[in-house]
Amino acid sequence: MTQNIEMTYEERQKFIQMHLDEPLKEKCRVQKVDDILGQDEAVLKILNNLRSQNPKSMILTGPGGTWKRDILRTCFKEIKSSEESFFKSGEFVEYYPDKKYNDDFIRDSLFGYVFEIDFGSRKIKKIKIGLVTRANNGILYIDNLENLTSNNILKLLDVMKSKKVYYEDRLILNVSDHVKRFLKEGFPADFRLAVNVDDSALLPDELLDLCEIIQFKEYDKRVLADIIKNSANKGMFYVDDEVCIKIADAAKNGEDAIGMLQHLAIKALKHGRDEITADDLKSVIF
After folding, report:
1. How far is CA 56 from the centre of its chain?
2. Contact yes or no for 203/145 (Cβ under 8 A)
3. Which residues contact 138 (CB under 8 A, 6 or more apart)?
4. In whole angstroms, what is the distance from residue 67 CA to residue 164 CA?
5. How far apart are CA 168 and CA 152, in angstroms?
6. Which residues of the chain have pLDDT under 70?
7. 103-111 and 150-162 helices, crossing angle to 10°
8. What is the DSSP-derived secondary structure letter of residue 37?
9. Which helix (DSSP H) or strand (DSSP E) does residue 140 occupy?
10. Structure pTM?
11. Which residues touch 198 (CB under 8 Å, ≥6 apart)?
């Protein structure tokens, strides 16, 4: 059993209880490239692309529940530390547009906008920068790209090509010099886009031409069992190899497997155990 022999049983139970408030899926997010299992081909393609002098934008496709975003972000962190990296001064910026967001809200979030502050006798114009500028020299990751209208996708393509975002504003009275300069010259937006889609064929050809397609594969059951085992260890629970295989067989994908493990861990803890047994599986496998 994996455990800290310096802890008493009571200390260990208290420690697990305190840390179980944070879901296992948060504890088990990959932190290093070496920790990534079962996606060797996708990881190699991502790393080779990010290391190039002129990296391409990326389309992440393949089965759900394979931690595409987490794997991409981990690769980005590793590459970013290199002095020669295009991304050395950039960020990994995430955006999750929802269907309930209107077109203007999404546009303003992505590209920013000009607004006025009323000081009574005069109005001062200011610029709220968008995510495309926050992601300058970095990666802009967009999930649910299908929630963007065609107009916003076309605007995104224009920004990617020009590497700048421009703000339309005809009235430049009472504008400070630096704001006036940015209204004229645009804000920097030299980023690489990464989108997570089920079917890349649904994307515009113009976007496909700018991107490299990264194909993730469904986890082999043996690999998924190893992921379950490692996750249990991080949560300070013991799971027999045979039980890990049974969870892997029953799970739809990686995220589903960790969700099942979380449920089983809480059940075991309620019964004063740090071991997940085959009998516990009856509550999640029908």
Report:
1. 18
2. yes
3. 76, 87, 90, 91, 92, 93, 191, 192
4. 31
5. 15
6. 1-25, 27-28, 120, 168-176, 178-179, 283-286
7. 10
8. -
9. strand 139-143
10. 0.83
11. 61, 64
